[in-house]
Automatic annotation (TrEMBL):
The lineage of its organism: Bacteria, Bacillati, Actinomycetota, Actinomycetes, Micrococcales. Gene3D superfamilies: Helix-hairpin-Helix base-excision DNA repair enzymes (C-terminal), Hypothetical protein, domain 2. Binds 1 [4Fe-4S] cluster. It is an enzyme of class 4 (lyase). Keywords: 4Fe-4S, DNA damage, DNA repair, DNA-binding, Endonuclease, Glycosidase, Hydrolase, Iron, Iron-sulfur, Lyase, Metal-binding, Nuclease. This is Endonuclease III. The keyword Ribonucleoprotein does not apply. GO terms for molecular function: 4 iron, 4 sulfur cluster binding; class I DNA-(apurinic or apyrimidinic site) endonuclease activity; DNA binding; DNA N-glycosylase activity; metal ion binding.
Length: 268
């Protein structure tokens, strides 16, 4: 990824490039402290499984994908199995994720391309990954960051929205967002940055009603006030995709968060 020099471009908020960089890094640190356990929410054990799960995650939730992948991965253990898949059987297995005909098509083509061009292995380079059928830059960065340990920024709908609300970019185009944010945050942090922004977007900074009143980065966010600022009302807006229905903060599971602790202290 090319990184634009932050010092050479005007900032969306009018603050100096240095101030923007400092604020972005501070925001990242707070979000990292809030969601230190953030990981890719798709279940996988190999690069191929993550690639397949990411293809399936289009237009649905990671929780929904995780429900179908155990049986899918058991039935199709390698790229050759997808290449030779019986279409009807594959469709039935992935049907709950929606758009199952198109996704079946994508998985069979993906398996075929991996067998024909990469000896059945998932390549570990962006320029190779994006040549695979159904694999765009977002999917490629998910796979690179999480299965290969290569830092990557994953600009999904949450990431783009938050980067704009936080005033890190004014761009809508995901590639431009990736480049502008990549210039603000050190490369080594790109994968974790993607996780924590996506976590925050799913849990508190929602598209329609962000829970600003309980947001850990409220003092660093130019969009504070776009959502509910009353803490008690804002807390009711918090959502957790991993365990729907469970009460906050138990949903955070084994990993206690600074945010939950703060809320407990404040009696929110
Ligand atoms: S203050 Fe509001 S808009 Fe800004 S990041 Fe927090 S929830 Fe989102």
């Amino acid at each position: 990824m090319s990184t634009l020099d932050p010092a050479s471009r005007p900032t969306p908020t009018g603050e100096s490039p240095l101030a923007l960089t400092r604020r972005a890094r501070r925001t990242y640190r707070v979000l990292h402290d809030t969601y230190p356990y953030a990981i890719a929410e798709l279940d996988f054990t190999t690069p191929l499984e993550l690639l397949v799960a990411t293809v399936l995650s289009a237009q649905t939730t990671d929780v929904g994908v995780n429900k179908v992948t155990p049986a899918l991965f058991a039935r199709y253990p390698d790229a050759a199995a997808y290449a030779a898949a019986d279409r009807t059987e594959l469709e039935e297995l992935i049907r709950p994720t929606g758009f199952y005909r198109a996704k079946t098509d994508a998985l069979i083509k993906l398996g075929t391309a991996l067998v024909e061009r990469y000896d059945g292995q998932v390549p570990g380079r962006l320029k190779d990954l994006v040549t695979l059928p159904g694999v765009g830059r977002k999917t490629a960065n998910v796979v690179l960051g999480n299965a290969f340990g290569v830092p990557g920024i994953t600009v999904d709908t949450h990431f783009g929205r938050l980067a704009r609300r936080l005033g890190w970019t004014a761009e809508d185009d995901p590639v431009k967002v990736e480049h502008e944010v990549g210039a603000l945050i050190p490369r080594k942090d790109w994968t974790m940055l993607s996780h924590v922004l996506i976590y925050h977007g799913r849990r508190l900074c929602h598209a329609r009603k962000p829970a600003c009143g309980v947001c850990p980065v409220a003092t660093l966010c130019p969009a504070y006030g776009e959502g509910e600022t009353d803490p008690a009302k804002a807390r009711r807006l918090a959502k957790f995709e991993l365990a729907p229905g469970a009460p906050w903060p138990q949903r955070l599971g084994e990993a206690p968060s600074g945010l939950a602790a703060r809320w407990a202290e404040e009696g929110v």
